[in-house]
Amino acid sequence: MKIQPMRLPGLCVALSLLTTLLPDLIAAAPTGQQMNPIGRVARLFNRNLVEVEARAQWLQASLGYLAAFEEKPLKEELGWRCGCFDQSAGNPWVALDLGKEVQLGEIFLIPAQRQTGDLNDLFPRRFTVEAACQPDFSDARVIHTTGRVPQGSPSGYPLRLAGDGKPARHIRLTLEEGHPRGLKNTAALSEIFVFNFERHPVSFGAKVTASQSVDVPGIWDPKYLVDGRTPLGLWEGGANAWTSSRGDCMEVTAEDPRTEWILDFGKSATIDRLVLFPYALPELSGPGVVPPRLRVEAAGRPDFSDAVLIATTGDENLPADLTTPLVLPTKPVPARYLRVVSDKAWQLGNRHLQALGEIEAWSGNDNLASKLPISVHNGGLDHPISELTDGVGSYQILPIYSWLTQLVERRQVEEKLAKANGDRATMAAESELNTTWGGAVALGLTFLIPVAIVERRRLVSRTQLDKLRKRIASDLHDDIGSNLGSISIIARAAKRQMEKQLGPGELTNDLGEVEIIARESSLAMRDIVWLLERRQDTIGDLVQRMRDCAARLLRDVEYSLVCRSSKTTAKLTLDAKRHLFLFYKEALHNIVKHSKATTVVVRLYDVRDKLVMEVVDNGVGLPRGEGDQMAAVKKITDRARVLEGVLNVESQPGQGTTLRLTVKRTSLMATKKMSHE
């Protein structure tokens, strides 16, 4: 039976006073526990509990940077299923012919979705994976084997297997133990992803052979192991980038639905595969859509007079549940121009729509379509669009290897978080019980009621201020944010309509500026709302916001943000949070506007009792004014002075710039009120 700590009104008053007098010692306690006076004092005497809670908070925050795991079951083309219905045929197996020898990197096995009546996902319990150069596997070598210990189900997550880096063209998985489901050794997989040593996928469209397959037309077939369709959804990251970019969607007529999307690579290239992401309609809460039938042509001339068909979806309509990207292996034809053609529109009620979310054209390890403008033709209309190649949907679109790796890491982090939460619950119950009895004895020896009354009034006043701050933040987010979003959407729709009717001009450019200003104002408003949030006042919260800001401002710059501070759970004062973030944001603005940098590195680390923020770029350096003074750093110098910190600026023409802000931790965590600008 779980023991609940005693709750005594007078005891809570005494313990609340103690925690008020010693705020720094319990700064690492979670917000939920800080509201409990007994729990707050318990953490004063149990540093292990504070460390476990800090670790749990850090693990929870880490999940926000990883690809989300959300199973989206398929309705057709589920994968490969097998069962031992012929004992003389030996163990079931499935083999992939990659088409050519590659240096074998990593292999990811994706579990099949759970079917009605199945207790689990039928992931193989014991199996062996072999690689070979010969089709008869006479030179086979073992890449992975479970041995005699059964492999537990990965619960829907990918299972990563390490390759050996040696040449291989054929991959074979042999099932040694499955599940009893009518047939002996029943097992199922949704997808097998094979990557070469350079982390490039080489299994899409591979030739697949298998033994003892349980084939169901349109549902189970070995060829579905290499089509890219899994229950794991789109290849998107965890950082939600606020954007109106969802791709291209236009309404066409039933009489003339033909639509073309044309890319100019600027040079001749051979496309290995085309990846089409579905367009997410706001009217639909489930799958996205692409045109029902597509064909892809490559040409060396802009008029496509020498066009060659390199890929097609066939005469049958595409699956109705496009919760995954559509992967089209292509013929190896060198060409400069690529054209995606749809002669049939997707129908929503009485509307006919041609829509795509994102287009990727891969040649080796390079997405040649990235950031390229695309020309869209429909009837007499011809307009360019950039949203189809910007690499952003509802979330950031990731390379498939990065996406799978993040899902594997998410499972590991979630397992560690579950253990940390369990340890925290046990330690918290024991510590609070001991603190309750100790506090009861201390209460009998003190008379703290008058002091407690004063403290209560202070807390009430602080609560009222917090409610006011929260209401202001909510009004900003709901009212002004909604209005700015509406302005952006209206301006964008008007610009498109005007371009269709009158073509590009000054008015369409002005509408584009209105859309950009509204979007940037909405992003700035979100930063203001975050600065007002009291619940997000730790250094870890600041780091997460810095990552979001860098993702917006440094979209065209290679950057990294590394936090080595061991005090990520320490709370900042409201002014300290504000000035640190605005210092960082001003530094990034200077880089984007003036530096011409291609690489930016941001570091946060501890030096004894100080926190150091360092921003380094490889740009042209800071311009110098009279007396060799760098006028561009005046604003950030003022913020450093308000923080009572030391700012070091290292800059030489053509050799980049280093900004290093060093602030005493007491200036960031102190209760004194810092002056505003």
From TrEMBL:
Entry keyword set: Kinase, Signal, Transferase, Two-component regulatory system
Recorded hits in Pfam families, A to Z, give:
HATPase_c, HisKA_3
Provide the leader sequence positions: 1-28
Stored Gene3D superfamilies: 1.20.5.1930, Galactose-binding domain-like, Histidine kinase-like ATPase, C-terminal domain
SUPFAM superfamilies linked: ATPase domain of HSP90 chaperone/DNA topoisomerase II/histidine kinase
Molecular function as annotated in GO: kinase activity
Where the record annotates domain Histidine kinase/HSP90-like ATPase, the positions are 578-665
Asked if Cell membrane is a keyword of the record, the answer is no
Q: Which residues form the Signal transduction histidine kinase subgroup 3 dimerisation and phosphoacceptor domain?
A: 469-534
- From the Swiss-Prot or TrEMBL record, give the protein name: Histidine kinase
Supply the source organism for this entry: Luteolibacter soli
